[in-house]
Design brief:
Blueprint lengths: L1 E14 L2 E6 L2 E7 L6 H13 L3 E2 L5 E3 L1 H4 L2 E6 L21 H18 L3 E3 L7 E15 L1
Parallel strand pairs: 3-6, 6-7
Antiparallel strand pairs: 1-2, 1-3, 1-8, 4-5
Helix pairs in contact: 1-3
Length: 145
Amino acid sequence: MRALVQRVTKASVLVDDQTVGSCGRGLLVFLGVGPNDTEQDAQRLWNKIWRLRIFADDAEKTNLSLADIDGEVLIVSQFTLYADCRKGNRPSFAKAAPPDHAERLYEAFCAYAAADAKHVGTGIFGAYMQVELVNDGPFTLWLDM
């Protein structure tokens, strides 16, 4: 399981020019699922993201987590995080999970997030989406589980 995590002041995801999910100050999480990933991986990854100390405290040190700031989350499924570009110029997505498996773990990940965070917005699994964001910092992390 992979996540590209961006600290944001706001973010939204649109499908057919309609906003389907959004968040204020917090994190935008692009989530990729591999074929061997499990629900335990989803829970472990969410717990890691929930506790990442990447928000500034009063001394401007990154000592606070999403939990500490009562932040919001936007989660967007992104199978392209498993792209393999080593051969040729066309990415291969063979290392991404099949859609049924990926959707199940995406939904599980979102449920774990919803149990903790005050607000969780989501995209629509498998849809063509447009994501708008204001990256705060910028601050972007890549996580593999």
